Amino acid sequence: MTPLSRTQKAKLPAIALAAVSSVIFWSLKPIFISIIGDRGDYAEVYVVSGAIAVVSSIVASLIFWKKTKSLLKGKSSLLRAIGWSSLSGLFLSTWYYGYYRALYSASMTDATVIAFTWPLIATIAIRVFTPKTAEKLKPTQWLLILASFIGAAAIGISNIGVESSSGSSGEIIWAFVAALGSGLYLPFAFKATAEIEKCIDSKPFATFYAISIANAISLSVVLALLGATNQTLRFYAFDSQVIFVCALIGLGTYLVAEVTWTWAFQEYKSLTLSSLPYFSPAASVILLHLLFDEPVRPIAMIGLVLILFSNLTLHANQKTTNALGLTLIATVYVALASQILPLESGGAIPELTAALTGLFAILAGFILSRASARRTEEIDARTVLVRRLIALDSNPDKSLADQLLCQLLEYEFSESAQDKRRQLSKLYVLISSAESSSPQKVEEARDALATWMAIHDDRLSIGESVALWMTGLGSVIFVLLLRDASPFGTAGSVVFAAGAFLLIFTIRDYDRNNLHGFRNQLRRLQQGFQEIGQKSYVPAEVVESGLVTSKTFEDSEARYGRSELTHSTEPKFQKRKIFDTVYLGTAVLVILIILLLPISTLGIANGSHVESPRPGTEVAPSGNSQVSKETIIIADTGWPAAHVSSAVISSVLSANDISNVVEPFDQTTAAQEFLADEPLPLVHPDLWLQNQSFQFQEAVQNNDVKLSDAKYNATQGIYILDSAETKARVEGLESLRNPEIARLFDSDHDGLGEMWIGARGWSTATALEQWIGDNKLNTIEPESYSESIFKAKLEHFAQHDKPIIFYGYVPDYIHKKFELRLVNSLDQLTSQPAVDVHVARTPTVSRISPKAEEILKHVSFTVDDINEFIRLEHAGVSPNEIASYWIKEHPGTVAQWTDHRQTTGAAGK
């Protein structure tokens, strides 16, 4: 890393601000998507966000009309800039489109981690297309890039065969497309910026114009792609909040983040500060998990660590193998240990602590890499200084050169500031004494000394030291919160804390605290003496501090002294008791961690081992960190019927003194929990039995999943919101084989009728799409998008007297709100029969509370009950209010649930 110029130093605060703003907006993009939820699909969200960004750029260009006019006058440069920006925009379109599609169609966290391999792709692309903006890659750096791609590929491969609630596993490929596009746009943005800068002589404004043109091209390419694929944009569920969030995305990520990042990259080529945006995926994953309970699988965590480690190490201008090793230790240590550390309970606070500790570890690795780079720089500068000092002495015996080198060592290892000033003064006096022989060489020596001192005095800053201590202390807090309540768990926490402090002690002063590295370094600093044929020289302070021993140098090979530089004094070696004890003691503990932590995850006899609640493998509910093992958990799976029925069941159990809590559970996560070897005491309030997997239904038959005795029947089918023409002409789906009838449902004017078959990831949507394909119903275009968008579209079509055909189910409030006609039941078309809806529970419930077991066995709702639940919640009434009202209105039903146990003689708890 070359020393910074004054201009670069003046820009550092602005570069830092640019990097931080990029981190914030890139990190928040998945959060923005989660806020929008199912009110907008990936195409609509990007188009609106992109349009806002383009319009804002046009407005800004008009405000700064003088600069825009200067750009327009530079015809040849402008044309080249448009060409390069167009290429950049083409790749940006694949980044935006691919990333949004992956976020909506695959695991958000997996997609985020994979997409952020783009900096590694950019590293290669920049060196190919704009080699002047970066150095040539070294073999070790290629290994880092390979490691990052392996991490991403592992996540992608692990998605094979995994169906998410939002789509199929194959959609994860769009995350790789996004990474490729984002990695390739940067060098062409650089080229466009360089051309525009010829016209307006301002790199920030040149970057703004280059990115603005690229954004316009990107939006045009995506719109053309959507048009070519006949993808309709549906804004039916867009409201003011969605538009506001889209504005934040457009202004924040497409303009602010991209412009500031591209500018910072060009201004500060070492990337020490501009590497900060690589923390974006880590921040996104943490926020997604904490705020929206997004599952994060262990493979994603490991891939994230690999990608972050590779990015930070690669862009910290690393130069030594030792530095690579230190960075790897600092980055991976906490991340991997936290994967296997056992714990008593989960929840938001320990999860946040774990996440912050992992980030601190990565930050420590980043600092280590910078410190190692500075050390390498210092060694290079010192080599030049030694040669300049030797060149001052033209005498054959090189006595002056010997004095100069001894004095240099004395300055380097003086402890106090006063002593350092005194030793430096002596060094300048000795240099000046050679002025009579060659003034030019004296000036060169002084320059070399000034250059070396500027680097030598640049030790760990206060901020870096604080970051290192936060790493250690954060690790301690983490293990105290998450350690297992067992002897092995306690031992694991001690070992883990010791390892964190070992890191601090090792690099607190990276000149001396490395037990073995310092002795090697001291030997390396003797190079000048070897060139002039003198014995090695060790300052007395080094000897007395215990940093070396009598075995470091043979007696005949070294001189020990300080007061008279050319004379030896009898060395008095001291033992470094404190540091050696701490260092070696913690080193032993770090070795023990390899043995103790894996053992501690196995638990002990009669212990209460709980699996580590890493995101994605949680066995504890995500919403409440204080759930007792004697507490029954009622899953709120997210749809209106489940919202209210879970509240009703909770109220009834609470009235009977049964400890319970309602927790949000994704349907997929809830189903997996029911099939776990040691399931939680979990209740599913609205289980559609025939829509579950074969494995789940087999578990029901084996009594591994228990169902309520009563049930209500849900029906599924194809419904029509009629117009006068469709009511007369459409009797069933077979009627749609007539192209003229199918066109009655054509709202995008492509000649095909549209039919909503359900949201992505629904088993019914997959079944219907397969039926349409197998029956070659080529006049119909099956559409799959969120239910919120569909119901907003249904309301819009009803207001404008337009027909619409769609998959629907009962109970659902829309059947009371609109006049809908069933044209085909689902069991007529597919293997999906009418659905039995039960209240389900795990066998663990009966072991915790026989009373709860008997109540849940007899809980039942009717279709009318569920319809009323849905209607009231859709009208804005809270689930708890609806539950309270329903219980008051149905005392007989509730009494039947709770009193039935008395007539059967069931034991109460």
From TrEMBL:
The chain crosses the membrane at residues 12-33, 45-65, 77-99, 111-130, 142-160, 172-194, 206-229, 241-264, 276-292, 298-316, 323-341, 347-368, 466-482, 488-507, 582-605. Residues 631-889 form the ABC-type glycine betaine transport system substrate-binding domain. InterPro entries: ABC_Gly_betaine_transp_sub-bd (IPR007210), EamA_dom (IPR000620), EmrE-like (IPR037185). Pfam families: EamA (PF00892), OpuAC (PF04069). Residues 16-155 form the EamA domain. Keywords: Membrane, Transmembrane, Transmembrane helix. Belongs to the EamA transporter family. This is Glycine betaine/proline transport system substrate-binding protein.
